Hints:
By secondary structure, the protein is of the alpha+beta class.
Amino acid sequence: MPRIILSLIFLLFTVLFISACAGDYGRHYVDDEMIGTVWEVKKGEKIVVDISEWETRNSKGNKKDIAYPYAANIKEETVINHEDGTKASIEDIKKGQKVLVNPPRGNDFEGYPEEIVLLEMTYEEKYARLLSHIDGLNLVVMYEDEEKLPSELQEPIYENITNILKNKDQRAVAAWMEYDEDYVVDFKEELGIERFPVMLVFNKEELVFKTYYVDDLYNFFNTFR
């Protein structure tokens, strides 16, 4: 399967998985507080917000994996603030940012908010794309230019890791992710990444291994217990 298709599949799975598994529906979401995560920012124009959890706050039982985007058009009167009340602008809004949009959407799905609040985020929320969501490890191959990604860092890397772990009673998943400087977290700076591509291994809580060399990655999994 082409690498770009795998990347898109992982991105879609991540969005749906996080939306479905981030917490109990209805526990953190109320009717008059429409909270979501920014998918896209069009500077000076609008932001697109994933409001899936807010939209399904009253749902019971099993729910379909459906994403609910909300296009919040920025008008001159729209007030943008940080959660502590300090003034912000659309230039401060990054992809992945958790926001409160007022008023909540009505039946007509207006999309012209009076207020947007940039909410404080937990470590788990900021790193949700990287942390493992299984009882095992998550390998993330992060790159800048997909066309220059070496063949050894493409799909076979996951098959090789699976073969290494099959007799260890351990599990791992893998994902390919393009570095996004417009994301709410600058992973390059926070993780001390010196160059791309880089291989990052996360458990459910933190980064446990980082390398630029495939042999070192395989050695890590060979000795992992």
